[in-house]
Predict the structure.
Amino acid sequence: MYSLIKFTFFILPLISFSQAPEKINFQSILRNKEGEILANKAVSLKINILEGAINGPIKYVETHIKTTDKLGLISLQIGTGSIISGSFKGIKWGNNSHFIKLEADFEGGSQFILLGTQLLLSVPYALFSNVADTVLHVKTETDPLFDLSVAKGITQADTAYWNRKTGNTTGDMQVWNGTNWENVSAGLPGQLLTISSMGIPIWQPSPNIVLPTVNLSGLYKILPFSIDFSADISSDGGGQILEKGIVYSTHNLPTLLDFTIMRGPDAGSFTGSISSLLPNTTYYIRAFATNNLGTRYSNQLFENTSLLAADIDGNLYPGIKIGTQTWLSKNLNVTKYQNNDNIDHVISSITWLSLVEGAWAYSDNSSSYEGTYGKLYNWFAATDQRKICPIGWKIPSDEDWTILTDFLGGLDVAGGKLKSTGISLWQIPNNWANNLSYFSGLPGGYRDESGQFLGLGYYGLWWSSTSDGTNALSRYVYNEFNYASKDSSGKNQGLAIRCLME
């Protein structure tokens, strides 16, 4: 909980409006019980207008939800909040003195605590003119403070003249050029307003601001059409971050004139994905950050998007770059070799048992699993000289699998990084699954030497091209463990195939 021992607010009265909504500019600096400024804090505020005395009757109540700036300052306009009771326009400013009672909830809710009550020393002229002066009649002034204020000398002609002056943006102001008042647009946060020798107002950056510091920390999940990135802004340079993001191109040192991804106006880390890229194309990528002084670009990284492979049946497979290798990110689903010869689809367990030639089957002999798990192949199909992978891709050897698992930290921990996450396909508990490699291994199970289907939801198994005598070497992952096991499987077992770029 926050307990306020001090609050400060400022009323900016020189505001003029010729028509509703009428309002009073209000600012308050908020501190905690130790006197420390409450910076960048979301608060709910209740504004009460009291008449006649500090504990006088409440004529109007409204609420606001605001966020303090880095100096603990909140700014709002009384008369524009969510009305709880009363009518702001109906307040009789000229009949009596008025007080502002401020209440707040520092958790952004509606459990308000009293911060204090203060006399409103000067009523904004536009509000006062509504009760003190009209075109047809001048009322007798009853405000006891009116004779002490500069408002006493203001005429209807003055207010009409002021009402003709308007800005376009919060913070707009006017300067006297020697003959007329001229509008000056609001500057950027942190800028200083200077006047040239010719009397021209010019916004200048604060002399203490430098360009921000931004770093492109990594590129990952390299696919044919997209690259993911991570970046961070370690310093705002003493100003405010106005924009940040990523620039990229197929040429060196891209700028904001090239392709851009925007990521908002605040410092810190940010991530995202660059999409709609071309396969097998080199892209140069930099992060950027812009503050009140200007824009700075980060270090440059570049990556080659992976290939998009197509098999003889027309199935498409996105490539995924993992370390120095590029793998297909889906299990093979083809029914023909590269020369267009058919691979036998074998349903019968008895026939499968005696095979010495290439064959395939669906997981659990059900075509409903094809879109998810691809197909299961015996080793004879995987290593047939007519080649089963798309052109330019191959069955990985045992050594190729070892390069992959070594890159992922070794067999003991590579399994979790190879497995897809969640339990919609994997059986509980799918331990350690994080898919950090984006290999997205799925539990399609396998077909054993006798033709029986086992392990659906529990195991993902893939062939290597390396023979181990009467058997062949393979890799598998399991729902309960973190390791990626190296196994020796009978050549007429049915396992999945992941192709590797040659």
User: Anything to note?
Assistant: Residues 165-204 form one domain. The CA atoms of residues 171 and 186 lie 5 Å apart.
